[in-house]
Design a protein that fits this description.
Largest sheet: 7 strands, mixed
Structural class: alpha/beta
Order of helices and strands: HEEEHHEHEHEHEHEHEEHHHHEHEEEH
Strand content: 15-25%
CATH topology of the largest domain: Aspartate Aminotransferase, domain 2
Low-confidence stretches: none
CATH superfamily of the largest domain: Type I PLP-dependent aspartate aminotransferase-like (Major domain)
Shape: globular
Helix content: 40-55%
Number of helices: 14
Number of strands: 14
Strand order of the largest sheet: 4-10-9-8-7-5-6
CATH architecture of the largest domain: 3-Layer(aba) Sandwich
Distance between the termini: 36 Å
Radius of gyration: 21 Å
Mean pLDDT: 96
Length: 383
């Protein structure tokens, strides 16, 4: 216990202590915490679909038909027709042969990677990939090589040195990075895949619903469905639902159903959630103005903050404002909260040391008036 107390004290002194903040209510881009309303800039509900009447209606209908839970794993009696409808819809949405639904993005990544790769294989991962990707690689036992962020030149150097020593090889990256808001140069991977006999896996968690002609993601936008072997993503962000998916070949899906422990040993997602996910895919196509408005707002905020001298990263709906020091970042977030903005500090180890930041996750509900007020309030804070 003494070691735990020392750890917590050290975290607090370094400005790294994480705490929970129970929110009492959420609606249309606003949250209520401790009896006060805030404009929410920390949510992943990018398109504002979580409160969409259509999703709520479909969820209620599914509860009336199936009850509140799937009641078992997919390999027992929890495999409902609605799960298969969603997987068929996802495979079409991602232009792949088949798909498999997982209970979360974390469970998807650790299960997929550790099932498909092992000790005789090698995996090349972008240095800023999500923790779930890192944990999946470590769990697999495969030889783990990290290349510098978005640096395909460094990736090729590693491939030249290491690829021939191993059996299978995987290159894995996020398409939109959650902490930097930037995108990976996906087209640069195509010649590396062929040259070094590698497979490609992408995590489209923060791209699904926002990029591409139909909102399918960066892979669709760049026309790389055939070249990308494994397309993973989530329903819990722009789609306003919950859970995750993998879109790939039918043979790989069959293999994972038989080997993927995070899939096999989990109770299936509730039918109400599956119904929400199904409806959201249609809404992404029907209400494309949501993603158009979102990206326009993001560009406006990013350029306005840069013009005022702030260090801003990314080129997506995620806008990191880099402060640097942990304590200053926490204080900046506190000042913004006092002004009515719910934005939280992002600190190491989530981001590199010395790069603590405020991450503004934009939503469809953040109109021009809100953004103008935010820009002025940020500019008025002196730390």
């Amino acid at each position: 216990m003494a070691n735990i107390e020392e750890f917590l004290k050290k975290r607090a002194n370094e400005g790294l202590l994480r705490t929970l903040k129970p929110i009492s209510y959420r609606r249309e881009g606003r949250i209520y915490f401790n009896k006060k309303e805030y404009i929410d800039f920390s949510s992943n509900d990018y398109l504002g679909l979580s409160g969409h009447p259509k999703l709520i209606e479909e969820a209620k209908s599914a509860i009336d038909k199936f009850g509140t839970a799937a009641c078992a794993s997919r390999l027992m009696s929890g495999d409902l027709e609605i799960h298969h409808l969603l997987e068929e819809k996802i495979s079409q949405f991602k232009n792949k042969e088949a798909a498999l639904v997982f209970n979360s993005g974390y469970q998807a990544n650790i299960g997929i990677i550790s099932s498909l790769y092992g000790k005789r294989d090698c995996i090349f991962s972008d240095r800023l990939n999500h923790a779930s990707i890192v944990d999946g690689i470590l769990l697999s036992g495969a030889h783990f090589f990290r290349f510098q962020h978005n640096d395909t030149g460094h990736l090729e150097t590693l491939l030249q040195k290491q690829r021939d020593k191993f059996n299978k090889a995987l290159i894995i990256t996020e398409t939109i990075f959650s902490m930097d808001g930037d995108r990976f140069p996906l087209k640069d991977l195509v010649h590396l895949k062929d040259k070094y006999n590698c497979s490609i896996m992408v995590d489209e968690a923060h791209a699904t619903g926002i990029f591409g002609k139909n909102g399918s993601g960066i892979v669709e936008q760049e026309g790389l469905e055939k070249e990308t072997d494994l397309i993973m993503g989530t329903f819990s962000k722009a789609l306003g639902g919950f859970g995750a998916y993998l879109a790939t070949s039918r043979k790989i899906i069959e293999y994972l159903i038989n080997t993927c422990r995070s899939f096999i040993y989990s109770t299936a997602l509730p039918p109400a959630i599956i119904a929400c996910n199904l409806a959201s895919i249609e809404l992404i196509k029907e209400e494309s103005y949501r993603r158009v408005n979102l990206l326009e707002s993001a560009q406006y905020l990013r350029e306005a903050l840069k013009a005022r001298g702030f260090q801003v990263l990314g080129d997506s709906q995620i806008i990191p404002l880099v402060i640097g020091e942990n304590v200053k970042t926490v204080e900046f977030a506190k000042r913004l909260q006092e002004k009515g903005y719910w934005v939280l500090p992002i600190r190491p180890p989530t981001v590199p040391l010395g790069e603590a930041r405020l991450r503004f996750s934009l939503s469809f509900y953040h109109n021009r008036e809100i953004l103008e007020n935010l820009i002025n309030d940020i500019s008025s804070i002196k730390i």
